[in-house]
Amino acid sequence: MTQVAPPTERRNPRTADIDTMETRDVLRLLREEDARAVEAVGAATGRLAQAVDEAHRRLVLGGTVHYFGAGASGRLAVLDATEITPTFGVPRDLFTAHFAGGLAAVTDSSADHEDSAELGAADAAALDETSVAIGITASGSTPYVAGALRAARAAGALTVLVTCNPDAPLRELAEISVVAATGPEALTGSTRLKAGTATKVILNSFSTALMIKAGRTYGNLMVGLVATNAKLRERAVSLLADATGDDEATCRTALTEAGGQVPEALVRLLAGCSPAQARTALGTHPGVRAAVAALDGHVV
Predict the structure, then answer these.
(1) So which residues are the catalytic ones?
(2) Quick check: pTM over 0.90?
């Protein structure tokens, strides 16, 4: 019996002659195929929203998010997890990306361990009922991801599958399947293209929406940023000015007195309270809005 290839591995009739085209036409076709990938993510919004809401319930209980992947999909997961702390100011272990073969394999594609279900299970061994396990595989069949999801499910963790294959074999291992049906790639089998685009959009959307629900933003301002360099420190001052309408000098002083902690400085400016009061309010309430409301401040 002939095994049917997943959609991501089939030949794309729209790009069959791409190697005979002028450069501008090659780029146009690649762009058009990427646009199809983004549209495919839109169709998966309902399931993605469910994943965010269920993950948020786990995080409220002190849970953590774990990505599991290999190849291009896994590298995108590593990128997303790495950016969470500097973007939102959360502990580094809130998001962890587990890559088949470990960190050394991220930059060395010859260290291929995606066929090891045992390794996936071992990487998921520490998960519990508060954990969120997200398996990321364009084909929906990667053994490493299968092992991780199976172990996570046995531990009572929330299991989510992110895939580009509507008939993914691993869907049975996930409580929620987020499927972006991207279809054949511009170059047959190169899932770093359309599938990669869709995966990046899904992961960015998932982690950002989850952090918004956790109170890590104020409006559309990134108030949880960690100001580790001069550029980011200036961005923090500008952010405070945008949020409060106060002048730059006032915002800079508030940020300094808050030890560089943007949320604390913002609560102080919005509520007109002391640094200590702002710190206490943030310690007991999730997010700037909730902290200001607790202090009976006026939220703009």
Answers:
(1) 83, 114
(2) yes
